[in-house]
Specification:
166 residues, alpha+beta, Beta-Lactamase, 4-stranded antiparallel beta sheet, 4 helices, rod-shaped
Length: 166
């Protein structure tokens, strides 16, 4: 039996190439999935660290505003924190839960909003209590735009999947 008589799909090198291609594709998808999982954890941790760091920076002037019932200072603090793109709503309340200052903007628009809510919902709200040793004077709250997080995460995920397939 000559080589030309054996059908292409039954030739050993064809079978080996087919299995190697399947193995390479599977490994690419496996490593892409691992990269996406690590990226998700890193995105969540980075968002949490950043949110808490930004609120911690504004804590001292926010405490002064709440202690003195200074709405001008409170508005300045809230305005400064809301400049950070991660937050879509920032609120400063005094000890009587009265809103001293608040700023809010529209949420980012994403195609997969339902998925963003499931993935990042637990990273959406942060609050720092404004207190000294003996008394609490208020709270500084910030709401994270989870759709903004999801949008950047989705871009990196698409790139990772495409590169894994390639």
């Amino acid at each position: 039996m000559s080589l030309t008589e054996i059908p292409l799909k039954q030739r050993l090198y064809f079978k080996q190439a087919k299995y190697m291609l399947l193995i390479a594709l599977s490994l690419g998808l496996l490593f892409s999935s691992l990269q996406i999982a690590f990226d998700y954890v890193d995105t969540c941790n980075e968002a949490q660290r950043t949110a808490l760091d930004v609120l911690e920076i504004g804590k001292t002037p926010a405490l002064q505003a709440a202690y003195n019932f200074d709405t001008v200072l409170a508005q300045g603090v809230v305005h400064g924190i809301s400049k950070y793109r991660l937050f879509y709503q920032v609120t400063l309340q005094n000890e009587y839960t009265q809103v001293m200052a608040e700023e809010k903007r529209e949420l980012a628009q994403v195609r997969w909003a339902w998925l963003a809510q499931r993935l990042f919902q637990s990273y959406s709200s942060y609050a720092v209590k404004l207190k000294n040793e003996e008394h609490e004077y208020g709270v500084l709250k910030a709401e994270v735009d989870i759709f903004l997080l999801a949008e950047s995460f989705a871009k990196r995920t698409r790139l990772t999947i495409v590169s894994g397939l390639l």
